[in-house]
Amino acid sequence: xxxxxxxxxxxxxxxxxxxxxxxxxxxxxxxxxxxxxxxxxxxxxxxxxxxxxxxxxxxxxxxxxxxxxxxxxxxxxxxxxxxxxxxxxxxxxxxxxxxxxxxxxxxxxxxxxxxxxxxxxxxxxxxxxxxxxxxxxxxxxxxxxxxxxxxxxxxxxxxxxxxxxxxxxxxxxxxxxxxxxxxxxxxxxxxxxxxxxxxxxxxxxxxxxxxxxxxxxxxxxxxxxxxxxxxxxxxxxxxxxxxxxxxxxxxxxxxxxxxxxxxxxxxxxxxxxxxxxxxxxxxxxxxxxxxxxxxxxxxxxxxxxx
Length: 306
Known about the structure:
Blueprint: H1 2-19, H2 22-29, H3 35-53, H4 65-90, H5 93-100, H6 103-114, H7 123-140, H8 151-175, H9 181-202, H10 215-243, H11 245-249, H12 254-267, H13 273-290, H14 295-305
């Protein structure tokens, strides 16, 4: 059991290490690509990669399970990324970064409401959430003029965080169906692309593939398609299967930290004292939230000892 749990934490960590660096690839591609084009191309590539990795057709045991896969595709592949990208056009990136980090809290609340069999929430989760959010605010608003309200963009970012929480709960439910992770993820991608297709016309989608003749664009879309999409959604869904939706979602706190470290290594940016403190607080929050400290049990034991 301990080895399986360690594998789940490793899967979540690998996912976040990759997702925390995708901003560089996205930033480079945004020179000639619209956000929806990047999104569509990366998930098409991810879907093809998953077919090649496991071409076996997934046959569902019950028809009603199809709805769960469809909702997961709608939430995790289509709506989350579209809401996040649209939010960025209305509000500051720092605002979006902080608001999206509320996703673990939403995940915990939805899990508590709809999945009774999951591990109950303890005070250390909320203490860790407070510490991590304080750290993420320090990282995101470092050098900025603070949090500037942009109602439309901020609400869209909040909606994106809630949608990701829904996706986490749905994938937890899917993990209980007993299917292979690659096959299940592939089916989620299929529905995500299906729901995404109508939006392509709304955002003036350009299907021109000659743009990928540029090696920089080609490398970065391959990274997003095969790494950030195909690989990472499989590792994330694996972590959800092993650890549960709440414990896995807590790793989202690490994204701003990975982003800062990547900026230093790749872009040559410097780490300010505020960023360093933010990183320390965020890591403390992660460790607190993931700890197995059982407050009530410890209190009872102390009472018996007295």
